Each structure stands twice: as C-alpha cells, then as structure tokens.
Amino acid sequence: QWSSGIGFVMAAAGSAIGLGNIWKFPYMTGTNGGSVFLVMYIIFLVLLGIPILLSETSIGRYAGLNAVDSCNKIKKGWGFVGGIGIIGSFVILSAYNVVGGWVIKYIFVSGDDLNAEYFNRYISEPVQPIIWTFIFSAISTIIVIGGVSKGIEKVSSVLLPLLFIFLTIIMIYSLTLPNAIEGVKYFLIPDFSHIKSIGDFARIALNAMGQVFFSLSLGMGTLITYGSYLKKDTNMFKNTVTIVTLDTLIAIISGLLIIPAVFSFGLEITSGPGLIFETLPVVFSRMKFGNIIAPVFFILIFFAAVTSSISLLEVMVSWFSSKTNLSRTVSAIICSIAVFAVSTLASMSFNVLSGSAIGGMPIFDLLNFISDKIIMPIGGLFICILVGYVWGIKSASREISNEGTLKFRFEKIFNITIRYIAPALIIIIFITSLINM
C-alpha cells in the first residue's frame, strides 16, 4: 500500500505528469492552433479526465487487485477492460522509452551541439540511441523493483516537487525574454480562425482528447493498479481533483516556458515532436546562461519521464507477477526486456528501418498512433460502460464516498458524465477521426 494519501497523490500525479506535459503538450499546442487546443484540452479534462480517472481509481481500490482481476471482480468476463490497459501500457512504454533515452542523452549535450541538425544526426545513428533507451529502461526497472512505498512513492515524492520548483524558475526567465508576450498571446488568447472546417475542428478535438488520455494515463490500467494500493479511508474524489490540477498546472507552466521562448527567437512553433529536441536547443544556445539552463531543463524532463514510465511498467508487473507467482524483481525484468525489444525497433525506425512502414507509418509513429488514437480511447470507453452500466453508479459512489462516510456531492453529475457524456464524446470523435483518415 501507499504509506499515505499524499504518497498516492504524488505517485499518481507523477504518473500523469510526464513527457505528455513537457514534451508533447507544447508541440501539440503549437501544431493545433495554440489557445484553441488549450480550451478544448481543459474542456476534455473536465468531461473525460476527472470522471474516468475517478472511475479507474475506484475500481482498483474496491478490488485491490491488478487491472485485469479488478475488472473481473466487478463482473466476471470483464477482465478484458484491464487487459486493454495492460496492452496500452506495453505499447506506449515501448515508444516512451525511446524518448526517455533522448532526454537522458540531451542532459549531456551543450555548446555547439545545441542546434536543430544535431538531433537529426543523433537519431540517425543506429546504436547510440538504443544504448540511452536501455539506460532509461533500466532506471525505471530498478525503481519498480524497489516496490510501491519504498520505490515508486519515494521517488515520485522527491522528484515531483523538484520538477515544479525548477520548471517555474525557468518559466519566469522565459517570460522575460524579448517579444515573449507574443507567445503568451498565442498560448492563452483564443483565436478560432484556426478552425476553418468541421475537419479542422474534429482534428483538434481528437488531438485534445488524445492528449488528455495520454497525459492522465487514462484507459491504460495505471490508475486501477495504483488505486488497488489505496487505503479504504482515502478521499478519492479530492485526490482525483488534486492530481488533475497538478497535471494541468505543469502542462501550462511548460507551455509558458517553451512557447514564449520559441516566439522570442522567431523560431517555428509548429515544428512538432522535435520541438524540445530541435527548436528549443537553439533557444538555449541563444539565451544568457543557456549552457546551464539546457541541462537543468532536460534533467527536469527526465524526472517527469521516469515517474510516468514506472507507472506504465507497474501495470504490467502487477498483472504478470500475480499470474506467474514470480517475484517482483523477476517480473519487472521480464516485462522490461519485452518492452525494450519493441523499443529497439521503434528507435531503429529513425535509422536502419527508416524505409519500413506499417500502415504507412514508421514503427515509432505507429506505436503512438495505436496508443493515443485507438487503445486509450477504447479503454476509456469500456471503463465508462463498466462503471456506468455493469457495476452501476450507486456501487461506484459507495466506494468513492467510503461507504457513505464522505459526502460525494457530485454523484448526479458523475452519473450523467460517465453514462452519457463521456461515451458519446469518445465515440463521436473516434468515428470522425476514422472518417477523416
């Protein structure tokens, strides 16, 4: 179990606060109309993020088992919902490890190498990125082997406050740069001219919804697994709101750190996934004290990345160890080796496998597409069905209210959201995206 409620919040927030906030959120904002994306993101946080996160946590605490067995305890035969989460964790961690390796490498990049060309040269090498991917994977594995309270909770409780403090300091510095206000306007003042058609709206909405699922680790069994370690007197609704608030705060701080800096130096905000590896190093190279700020920034991203990767790995380890009766250590190593094998292929899709494509996409892009656009939304949809129609809102509310000892004032809103609003949004946006593709 977690040693305390705050320990759970730190671990769950650490799971949510990761590459999705610092790497993905700024570039998704940049390529999807700036503040328009931010507005949709916040709407989906309220309509999807909070209710689904609360649902997953309540399932986990009620059952006290791994993701598959927890769902089976709700209703026999529904373990496949947790299985979707385990598959999702495997797929997303396979790509996540590659980016985590990039992050560690960039801690040691400085001087003349802080340029856009360096990143392309680096990922074009077949061996070095795989070595850094292995190092990142090994660090996550060691932490998970340490256990729940002594490993995951302790690491998250230290790294998360450090991340918040140092990100805020760098953000303040970024906002003092010349012309930074233009980036702030792009990020915070809505400009709906970016939506010129229904297709544009559907694309931005789908990306915003996918970002919510990615950032909060929804539909991946993470919160079911973490919820299973909760004590029965925990205020789950309060903790859920705290987790979502912390996650959103870090995303906004990251946006205010990166986007104004990019605008300040007249660089391209729509550069996509390479934003922090190609564009931002150029910003650092032109900044005063850039050689100091750059490694600190990438150390912070490493903190965020590792607190998320351990949550994804824990989902698999929890299930695998319970099914095989192997020790946590052996289970963590086996799961990590399996993930690393796919991570190697994903890393090679930038070099020796660059000419290979599945469904028109390189392996790395395919893994992200499957997790963001398919597995997580489908997993979230089945969570809504499981809680809203199979387990029932009354049963879920009893768990959330600690058998009536706490007041759950939002039960009616929770009911409407989980049974109707969230499933409808997921289905509509999912189908629209398929039509557009």
Write structural notes for this entry:
It is a single chain. With 437 residues, the chain is mainly alpha-helical. The chain has 17 helices and no strands. The chain is globular. It starts with a helix and ends with a helix.
Topology:
Layout: H1 5-16, H2 19-31, H3 35-63, H4 67-74, H5 79-107, H6 116-124, H7 128-145, H8 148-175, H9 180-188, H10 198-216, H11 222-227, H12 236-264, H13 275-286, H14 290-324, H15 328-348, H16 363-400, H17 411-436
Q: How many alpha or pi helices? A: 17
Biggest β-sheet strands, sense, barrel: none
Rg measurement, Å = 21 Å
Order of helices and strands: HHHHHHHHHHHHHHHHH
Unreliable stretches (pLDDT < 50, length at least 5) are none
Strand residues, percent: under 5%
**Helix proportion range:** over 70%
Look at the structure and give the mean pLDDT: 84
**Overall shape:** globular
SSE class? mainly alpha
Q: How many DSSP-defined strands?
A: 0
List keywords for this structure.
17 helices, globular, 437 residues, mainly alpha, single chain
Brief digest:
The chain has 437 residues and is an all-alpha fold.
